Amino acid sequence: GVSLKEAFKGDFLIGTAVNARQLDPENEAESQLIKEHFNTATPENLMKAHVLQPRWGHFNFEQADRFIAFASSNQLKVNGHTLIWHSQLPGFMRHMEDADSIRQYVVEHIRTVAGRYDGKVDSWDVVNEALDEDGTLRNSIFLRALGEDYIVEAFRLAQQAAPNTKLYYNDYNIEQPRKRAGAIALIKKIQAAGVRIDGVGIQGHWHVGSVPMEYIEQSIREFAALGVDVMFTELDLSVLPNPWNGNSAELSQTERYSKHLNPYPDGLPDSIEQAQARAYETLFRLFLKYRDQVGRVTFWGVHDGQSWLNNWPIRGRTNYPLLFDRRMMPKSAFHQIIATKYNH
Ligand code: G3I
């Protein structure tokens, strides 16, 4: 059968998150799937700041370099993830309070990492998840210490260190109107400062049954109108309810676990697998409609067994958000996505 990357050749790149396990020759079957279906990869955790700079001023590029080598030997483009993010900070930053130290960290981290990988990665998520749901800047260590211009400065530093690398802003829920307005203001501010920003990543962690299709379409149009690439950077469609939503807040911890941990002990029911396939199909129809604006669609993992959604928002769930099942067989969503292309 046709592979994902062949099906969408000429439309947009097809990517996956890659984690340490797939670099291990023992997981040959997983790397095989990556080689067959994807032409771009994002390191799920391997290029985050706490991995690259475990101690202040001491960098460890071992895993990142292995990932880059894996990508280059398998003809995968690379999206670096991520230079500036308030979450998963290196431990030494937890006690950092003075603005001068934090500024020094930002300058050194971007110069060192973006500089080292310029020409070796195609793009960077320069800043990740800097916005709140209401569209204002998130109250993070960076905002508190450096003020509102820290994002423009991060892009400026990245542009200097990595002139050959595309520079992106990446966030979740930025298809939602208020957060989207915040992202648009941010992109305009970077552009008005004469600093380069090449694209915006809509993460795409959605739920089957509530994919916000209209907001997604409006977002593609509005972001593209700013002259930047639009990408879907961490796509997955959870089939489990969010246990913190609605009246489930009233559930006890035990009830929460029994209701939400693994509601399908016998495997994903066919009706839900089909609903998920239709949700993915609807999304891909939209991506194809905007094939001139959408540059890349990256899934946040290869198969259901290795998705972060098995551990979030509570640990030890059994979720089914991706295109391949735990035995690495293609699911209905996979076939439906390919069919979408040929019945377009
Ligand atoms: O590797 C350790 C293991 O040794 C340890 O026993 C275990 C117990 O805590 O933790 C393991 O590390 C976990 C790591 O994933 C590897 O699986 C961390 O706790 C866990 O926090 C980490 O989660 C990652 C998360 O980002 C935080 O960095 C997820 O894999 C990763 O999918 C997720 O990705 C983020 C994007 O970067 C940004 N957008 C949202 C997206 C989903 O949260």
Overview of the structural elements:
- The chain is of the alpha/beta class.
- The protein has 13 helices and nine strands.
- It has helices at 4-7, 20-23, 28-37, 49-52, 62-73, 99-117, 141-146, 150-161, 177-192, 213-224, 253-260, 270-289, 332-342, and strands at 13-18, 40-43, 77-85, 123-128, 166-171, 199-202, 205-207, 229-238, 294-299.
- An eight-stranded parallel barrel has the order 1-2-3-4-5-6-8-9, surrounded by five helices.
- Helix 6 packs parallel to helix 8 and helix 12 runs parallel beside helix 13 (332-342).
- The two termini are 18 Å apart.
- It binds ligand G3I.
- Ligand G3I binds at residues 44-45, 88, 128, 203, 234, 308.
- It catalyses: Endohydrolysis of (1->4)-beta-D-xylosidic linkages in xylans.
- It comes from Parapedobacter pyrenivorans.
- GO terms for molecular function: endo-1,4-beta-xylanase activity.
- Residues 1-340 form the GH10 domain.
CATH class: Alpha Beta
Our measurement of the CA-to-CA distance between the termini, rounded to an integer number of angstroms, reads 18 Å
Total strand count, please?
9
Looking at CATH, which topology would you report? TIM Barrel
The percentage of residues in β strands lies in 15-25%
Query: Could you state the order of secondary-structure elements as H and E?
Result: HEHHEHHEHEHHEHEEHEHHEH
Question: Which stretches are poorly predicted, pLDDT < 50 over at least 5 residues?
Answer: none
Strand order of the largest sheet: 1-2-3-4-5-6-8-9
Bound molecules: ligand G3I
Name the shape in a single word: globular
- List the total number of helices: 13
By oligomeric state, this entry counts as: single chain
The class by helix and strand makeup works out as: alpha/beta
Number of domains: 1
Query: What is the average per-residue confidence, as pLDDT, rounded to a whole number?
Result: 95
Family: Belongs to the glycosyl hydrolase 10 (cellulase F) family.
Keywords: Carbohydrate metabolism, Glycosidase, Hydrolase, Polysaccharide degradation
Active site: 234
Domain GH10: 1-340
